Amino acid sequence: xxxxxxxxxxxxxxxxxxxxxxxxxxxxxxxxxxxxxxxxxxxxxxxxxxxxxxxxxxxxxxxxxxxxxxxxxxxxxxxxxxx
Length: 83
Fold this sequence. Notes:
alpha+beta; three-stranded antiparallel beta sheet; 3 strands
């Protein structure tokens, strides 16, 4: 039996992982890449990236979860606002 991957069907409602590079993560929060680096070393609980070579990528779902946690904890964080 031969399986042809080109014939595979992925349902439109299936979850897919969306990865964002550091530049888009910084843009998402209106911060510099240096601030992003600082957030990674702070106690904010910011999600850890996946490294591919020297490039960093974040799961969009991890970022959304972090945002919800921050909103619930302080009521201060909205897209574009940072401390």
